[in-house]
Amino acid sequence: MKLNLKNLTNKNKFQRTHLIRDVSSKLLGECLIVYGWIERIIKLKKLTLAVICDNTGTLQIILNNEIINSAGITKNSVMKIEGILQKSKSHEFDFELNVKSFSMISKATSHSPLDSRSNISHLDTRLNSRALDMRNQKTVAIFKIRHNVLLSIRKFLIEQKFIEITTPKIIGNATEGGANLFTMNYFNNNAYLAQSPQLYKEQMMLGLDRVFEIATFYRAEKSHTLKHLNEFTSVDIEGAFIDYSDVMNLIEAAIKKIYDYIINNCKSEIDIVNPKLQNLQHTNFKRFTYSQILEKLQNNDIKIEFGNDLLDSHLKLIGNMHKEFYFITDWPLSLKPFYIQEQYDCSELSQSFDLQYSDIEISSGGTRLYDSQKLKNRMISQNIDPTDFVNHLNVFDWGMPPHAGCGMGLDRLMMVLIDTNNIREAVLYPRDPNRLHP
Ligand code: AMO
Questions:
Q1: Ligand 1, residues 200, 242, 359, 361: which to mutate, most atoms within 8 A of Cβ?
Q2: Tens digits of per-residue pLDDT, 411-424?
Q3: I want to staple 186 with a disulfide (CB 3.0 to 4.6 A). Which of 191, 246, 313, 367 is the partner?
Q4: Counting beta carbons within 10 angstroms of the beta carbon of residue 225, is it exposed (0 to 12), middle (13 to 18) or buried (19 or more)?
Q5: What is the CATH T-level fold of the domain 14-106, as seen in this structure?
Q6: Per CATH, is 132-426 categorized as 3.40.190.10?
């Protein structure tokens, strides 16, 4: 039998005529069909006022009490509402829908653990009911901004001729040294969750020239801080025939582009989340060497010597002096991973940088070693067994171009953009040592 495709065409029975954001004075007197959930209900003598929401806004509706009683509505339930748009006398709304028909589509049967209208709910409570938290305007705004940040960084990197790649997340060797690895059983062998795409993005320099990856990576750090997660999103960049100062220029330009993009494309979300962004004026990111930072700390009576890592307390102090983006460059080689190139004129220093915003590390990167023998020697000097990296080292014997790159913590950048001190605000379902569900 021949199928009649015409008869198979599905008609959406939940077709809305308007999203709430599109309701305007032009529609006064017209009959609209909107779908949304009930945010609040105020029963008056003869009438009931209710506020319905969809993902784009809120609208007041007026019902006669007979309609509402028959529907048996509860807060958060999803309703179909058909009514005539009229001017409203309320202070909060310019318009309202005078409801002609009203039907329950999906009843909210359990008590809501969150108050979707206010921001008073404790973050843990919100994270425990994250899906419902998406009915909070501020949370929605945060994730719309995040979407636009991802969009703009992709756009920028593609314009700069970078190719997007996807590297394995189940791997056989540590990429960032042996610590902080989640181990798993892989058909009776040990495998790990990738800490970063470091080795793969470097290997791609053999032929792809410029690559980037935006993906989640894993660190088994049992740290309970406001800036660390065990699963985080990283924007990784690698380019051939460039060095760390090119990468700093690139990441600075990328961040400025992201700001411009969200300021132009997320006006209402920024108003809700971080209004002071609207008046932002770009300035060039300052660049301090590690030694200059050391001097600043010593001038503030901090006892610290060349070769010591910068502790949180040190970064707090420096961050208080610089509540802005700034680079810390030329770190001691001993503090950097095995793949980082030393300075050509001083082997104690590395061609590396961290990008900070105040006391938050946003990105780190550097020029890479590209000579396989030097890479092998460096591994040995850092107590890393080169035989574990045979495949990787082989690639460096096939004619590896000089290259450089960086990794940027997207969730950390989001902290700055949405002005929060807790990384969990910027991540849908954050994973930390105490949080594996939902
Ligand atoms: P690094 O380990 O410094 O460098 O990571 C790069 C950036 O990723 C973010 N980040 C994190 N964000 C949240 N939670 C975490 N636990 C976490 N760990 C790191 C930070 C950090 O600056 N392969 C190198 C990068 C490179 O050289 O290309 C690397 O992974 O913002």
A1: 361
A2: 999 999 999 999 99
A3: 191
A4: exposed
A5: OB fold (Dihydrolipoamide Acetyltransferase, E2P) (2.40.50)
A6: no
